[in-house]
Amino acid sequence: MGTITIKDVAKLCGVGVSTVSRAINNHPDINEETKTKIMKVIKENNYIPNNSARNLKRSNSKMIAVLIKGISNPFFSKMIKVIEEETQERKYSFLLHRVEEREDEIDIALELVKEKKLRGIIFLGGYFTHSEEKLSQLDIPYVLCTVGITGKWSKELCSFVAVDDFKESYKIVDYLCKIGHKRIAIITTSLDDTSIGLIRYKGYLQALRDNNIEPDMKLVRSMKDDIETFTMDNGYVVMKELLESGEDFTAVFAISDSIAIGASKAILNAGKSVPEDYSVAGFDGLDIASYYNPAITTIRQPVDEIAKAAVTILFDVIKKKADHQMCVFPGELIIGQSTKLI
Amino acid sequence: MGTITIKDVAKLCGVGVSTVSRAINNHPDINEETKTKIMKVIKENNYIPNNSARNLKRSNSKMIAVLIKGISNPFFSKMIKVIEEETQERKYSFLLHRVEEREDEIDIALELVKEKKLRGIIFLGGYFTHSEEKLSQLDIPYVLCTVGITGKWSKELCSFVAVDDFKESYKIVDYLCKIGHKRIAIITTSLDDTSIGLIRYKGYLQALRDNNIEPDMKLVRSMKDDIETFTMDNGYVVMKELLESGEDFTAVFAISDSIAIGASKAILNAGKSVPEDYSVAGFDGLDIASYYNPAITTIRQPVDEIAKAAVTILFDVIKKKADHQMCVFPGELIIGQSTKLI
DNA sequence: TTGTAGGCGTTATCAG
DNA sequence: CTGATAACGCCTACAA
């Protein structure tokens, strides 16, 4: 049944290909009657336009892409939904593309831009350490949404929206201090990993110091790199090890809720209790944090607002209504039952 | 800087386009020297081939797609990873595409097949109620992986791999009966929804009857359709309502772990205890089920095996090593601390 | 080993 | 309003 093309449809209808094209694309200059006739033939013969050919020829595509690193992260689920809604509202279509941990998001973006004639990109998650030269290759608007960035940041290149990881991390650790904890452990990424984990770790350090607590490296624990990072499994293993080390501490700050839950379970399985024996705090404000038992004290990131802002900014830039901007949202300290006054 | 094409590269190198093409595609008939020279120019000028043009021309693509309905479902996360690995091992590439709840997966598949010249498809999740006529349009091998299907099933069309939802549902409800529960509630999809929920509900009914328990419709609760289904939120709300109804029951079977966790939290928030006051059972065997406190009794679906089987079968069919097949995996009853003998 | 030319299925630009 | 026809960027015979 050799795949049917626009030519076949044209022949079947006794019209030219351009007329068929007009019918498919809701072009105004076309007789309603011929249009309905064409659409009928299309339906009957199950004609489906070839997107590759379309993309090849088309110049403006009304399509943006979301490149997401860590697609299994539940933190992104709601974001995707919001981004999708907001995009649809603007009559654009939306392509979700996952990028693997070791892949270079810029390379993928470059490829996609060519292939799909994208108008804009939202990067979700991951960590940006690309050279300006590399970034400047990407000549369409893009915004970095909750992606980690190091050092210098040129506002000309792209927008950025996220919470201030340092500040929020500081906030929750400061809270732990204020309710009396002095021996506060942290479960973070490995310290030579220049990621979001490093920033949160720095917030932790600063909070301790400002509360006159000398950081103790024996309480600084890194996720295992032979287990997927930012998972409950990882949190569990690290916490188990910490408990078995016999180190003295009364609270632990896990840099994500998943890790916090893994850590909590390790404590419970050791026959101890949260928060009676150990207070546990997380980060992100996932649904599961509040559903867990005990509910995890955490920093809620305003995902909806963040996602909305990302889309708004992106389209403002696309439509040249505004320049790129840096948009930092406040997180909210959610006090659950996993932490207690000491 | 008008996007650079293969022609430009050819000109820059002083060779023909076919030579450049050969270089890019690792074609054998090419002088190593000219090849390295070409690759150098490509790197220097950041040339990126246009995939649309490639797909348009190409006939066989060594690419499969995974169409996934409910991408935020953590149940699929591990599957995706496994599928990806297995696909890579076979030197194929792999395209992940999410389909929205209301979208028709077959239409999307058809489109993708044309656009990308796919060799095979794995459908993940969702529910198939398409006519044979529609299905037969999809003329490449595909396998349904943990997707619900109704009634008749023609094995010629495609493969199917999943657990037996009826049997597994029966298994866990039977377990509840065997440990002494007689008033067992269920939280499922709405009963006129012909989905996987219906099948699990039927398993529940059968288990009750086989244990000489008369089903009580007052204990059959449906998820709210104004809240996203299969979520903790939904489980929470439904359970809260059930508790407040004053209905007498000692156990509840939630047809997914997320729902079970929401339900558990509702019980806890009502000042009751799991499992002392109410036993709670789930379905799926998500990580969080075992990490929850108390660990949720559930049916663990062997996700790795399921995903592996899906890929294996798909490639067997692609390579014509085998016909389509129906592959049913056993689930495993995982007994947590959320259920107790009565 | 390399270059030339035709075509993949559409859309866009023209004339009619 | 409609129909040829030239791109779009690449691959692949076919020729050299």
Automatic annotation (TrEMBL), chains A, B:
CDD domains: HTH_LacI, PBP1_LacI_sugar_binding-like. Residues 4-58 form the HTH lacI-type domain. This is Transcriptional regulator, LacI family. InterPro entries: HTH_LacI, LacI/GalR-like_sensor, Lambda_DNA-bd_dom_sf, Peripla_BP_I. The keyword Transcription regulation applies. PANTHER family: HTH-TYPE TRANSCRIPTIONAL REGULATOR GALS, LACI-RELATED TRANSCRIPTIONAL REPRESSOR. One of its GO terms (molecular function) is transcription cis-regulatory region binding. The keyword Acetylation does not apply. Gene3D superfamilies: 3.40.50.2300, lambda repressor-like DNA-binding domains. Keywords: DNA-binding, Transcription, Transcription regulation.
